[in-house]
Amino acid sequence: MEFSTQTTQAIHQIKTAALVVGVFSDGQLSAAADIINRASDGAIKAVAGQDFLGAIGETMVLRHLSGVRALRVVLVGLGKQADFNVKTFAKAQQAAARQCISLRVADACSTLLLLGCSDSDTRHRARLSAQAHWQAAYFYDATIGKPDPARKPKLRKVTVLCEKADDKSANLGLSEGDALGEGMSLTRTLGNLPSNICTPTYLGNQARTLGRQFKSLKVSVLEKKQIEALGMGSFLAVSQGSAQAPRFIVMHYKGSGAAKASTKSKSGPANGPIVLVGKGITFDTGGISIKPSAAMDEMKYDMCGAASVFGVMLAIAKLEWPGELIGLVPACENMPSGHAIKPGDVVTSMSGQTIEILNTDAEGRLILCDALTYAERFQPSAVIDIATLTGACIVALGSVNTGLFSPDDALADELVAASRRALDPAWRLPVEDEYQDALKSNFADMANIGNAGPKGGAVTAACFLARFAKAYRWAHLDIAGTSWLSGPQKGASGRPVPLLLEYLLNKTQSGA
Q1: What does DSSP say about strands 247-254 and 274-278: parallel, antiparallel, or unpaired?
Q2: Which residues have a Cβ under 8 Å from the Cβ of 64 and sit 6 or more positions away?
Q3: Is the Cα torsion angle 383, 384, 388, 390 positive or negative in sign?
Q4: Assigned fold of 181-509
Q5: 264 an active-site residue?
Q6: Is residue 428 annotated as a catalytic residue, yes or no?
């Protein structure tokens, strides 16, 4: 998809297949809508407040208006003018983009960026505009035997109107949104692929493909013997029940402005790389502690943490981000077989700490802990793991907020702020020493689940990971409730790629 800006001109003279203008619910027209209304002898006023109420995200298409060169004018509701903010803007732009996709037009022009918004700047809203069009255009047909040509979007060119003084900021935001949208699409497709296709080997090959696409991205894919040589006993224990061989994927991006040396401080290397660790369970049966059959098909999404790392790496490489970023993905299946780990088994992690397996369905933390130990070698400034880790997080937060855990207040605050600005919200939950007692074991250094049953399950899972992340600043994102949708709209969401990209862009903008 091609994005471009156009500075304000006679809006009614713009030639396009679809011109998007906003209308408020209190009867007020946006400036762009007012221009179109006057040029068309009141065509918008004739429907505003009657056939078209201006509710947030409501749309209506007016065709072949006299005095207007656009073939179609797409009205989009903005809600009450006094309440208009960046969330309203995003919802309106998303609705307008969906409408343009459904119209099957090849090009469209949006005037929504011209709207004033006190809680957002031009660059931010331009990024949200491009992201909205990518999300609206996304469709999955990778495993459809006879794809329906009508499902493939025709929209190829999107023009965004802006003031002349805002042109540079708008173009920068569109570039960021374009990269973000492409990264999210990759994340969604990897998540949506069935597990017989998206295996650990497939993920390794996808990483190599990214490495060939971007010279700034170096990729290593470690196989079983190499993983064994590293002493990743916990990771290998999960993989041993499957016929699919495990893979440990290392993606190392280094931009032109990346630091050449690390300067250590009490909180770790001040200018070391940022490391993302994504849980890559390409299918999770629960192992010997097998899951109920209902909705087990959705356990192909248990690698959405890994998929989000892929999406971020693509976006960062496409933007030629100046920093240094490392993506680590331990990838395997969790299957029941004669070779599978059993409740009561004790395994030794890469860190040397031993773990009693009380529930084989608490496997995500077992592969992540070895990846977190591996991350130490990079002397990172921060490590963030992303995982569909616990059903308990869904109970706590539903599908709105991602669960955020970190013992580092500054890092947690940065991630929360990034999540709010990206409109990809996260909510901080505790990861305190008082919860660690729940992981006591009589037969190992720790158990892999808490001894209090379902109480605080998301917290004790985070506390488990914290034992392997003491050498650096660390945060954990539990995306079990936010990385995919169930029901009729079943599919991967692409979250939390927006949150992570916002965090990374903020790091370079602040000079951190």
Answers
A1: unpaired
A2: 71
A3: positive
A4: Aminopeptidase (3.40.630)
A5: no
A6: no
Helix (H/G/I), strand (E/B), else coil: 281: strand
What sign does the CA torsion over 482, 192, 504, 276 have? positive
| Cβ atoms 479, 388 nearer than 8 A | yes
138-190 pLDDT, tens digit per residue, is: 999 999 998 888 788 999 999 999 999 999 999 999 999 999 999 999 999 99
Q: Per-residue pLDDT tens for 43-55?
A: 999 999 889 999 9
What residues does each domain of the chain span? 2-161, 181-509
3.40.220.10, 3.10.20.310, 2.40.440.10, 3.40.50.1100: CATH of 2-161: 3.40.220.10
Q: Determine how β-strand 2-7 pairs with β-strand 157-162.
A: parallel
Q: Which of 91, 279, 300, 365 is catalytic?
A: 365
> How many Cα neighbours within 13 Å face the side chain of 218?
6
Three-state SS at 502: helix
Percent of the chain at pLDDT exceeding 90: 91
DSSP 62: E
Of 396, 408, 389, 384, nearest to 502 by C-alpha is: 384
* Structure tokens, 113: 């960026």
Residues 336-376: pLDDT tens digits?
Answer: 999 999 999 999 999 999 999 999 999 999 999 999 999 99
Q: Structure pTM?
A: 0.95
Q: How far, in whole angstroms, is CA 134 from its chain's centroid?
A: 13
DSSP 8-state secondary structure symbol assigned to residue 151: G
Q: How far apart are CA 35 and CA 10, in angstroms?
A: 8
Domain 2-161 shares a fold with domain 181-509? no
C-alpha separations of 133 from 101, 130, 171 in Å: 9, 5, 15
Half-sphere exposure at residue 156, Cβ-oriented, CA atoms within 13 angstroms: 2
Query: Choosing from 224, 291, 420, 428, which is the catalytic residue?
Result: 291
% of the chain surpassing 70 pLDDT: 97
CA distances (Å), origin 87, targets 26, 161, 422, 476: 18, 19, 10, 26
Q: Which residue has the tokens 């027209």?
A: 29
CB 110 within 8 A of CB 73: no
